[in-house]
Amino acid sequence: MVVARTWNCIDLNVMFVSTIALSRFHSDQPPYEWYQDYHTLSHLLNPHTLSGTGGHPNMVSMTDRADDASASTAIVTNASAVKVYDCMHPSKCRVLILGCGNSSLGANMFEAGWRGGMTQLDYSSVVIDQMKKRYNDQYYQHLIFGPHAAAANLNIDNNNNKSKQVPKMDFLCLDVTQTPLPFDGGSFDLIICKGLFDALLCSANSVFNVRRLVKDCLRLLNDNGGALMICTYGNPDNRVVFLEDEEGDLTTYWAGVHLHKVPSRIRNSNGKNGSNHGPIK
Length: 281
Known about the structure:
Blueprint: E1 5-11, H1 38-41, H2 47-51, H3 81-87, E2 95-98, H4 105-111, E3 118-122, H5 125-134, H6 137-145, E4 170-173, E5 190-194, H7 196-200, H8 206-220, E6 226-232, H9 236-240, E7 256-261
Parallel strand pairs: 1-6, 1-7, 2-3, 2-5, 3-4, 5-6
């Protein structure tokens, strides 16, 4: 039975970049973006793209792929597009970010109005402690009373005293290979894996761990319409196989697959955006 879920894969089409070892994370380290940041992914983080109800210039079809190995592919199925669209509105979409690291992706989404619930997980207790300290009560107070409060889409009462409490982000130290994760089924509408699949596939028991994680993502996603968004440097064909059932059928669990090409982000050694030319350091 095809359920109302959609998988989105961001095909970066560049060589794999070595990442920082967990042991190098320190409590005072600034945010480090693996692969992409919010600004390079924000054009995909909307109900139309996540549900497959609207096309995008960098989304191409399987038939357009030809022999260009660097092109992205797209398989679009609209069977559950309306249901998925309804669940992707930022004000009510429940987001889970797996392997968040100390990335600012979740916070950037939160500040942009994704207030349905923002849960972020990572294996490193150092990272999670760092994130909790960075996004403490002072951070939320700044969102409410700071100069950019209006741009942060905050809800305020009719007296304009900004007294309505802002929902806070959750940061949990969990190993995603130890499934099932401690959440009820259907707890999330959008699950984001930015680099996590590639990291797991370079570790021990890789195939087993990835397949088990995908199975748990299916359990965690809203049955009435959810999306799994995977940001990867790998060949999309080599990632799709982990979404198939035992018989190799992709449509058993997923209503649609949409792949988008995102230009590689040149960055310098501290993880910040650099120029748009030259090698990745």
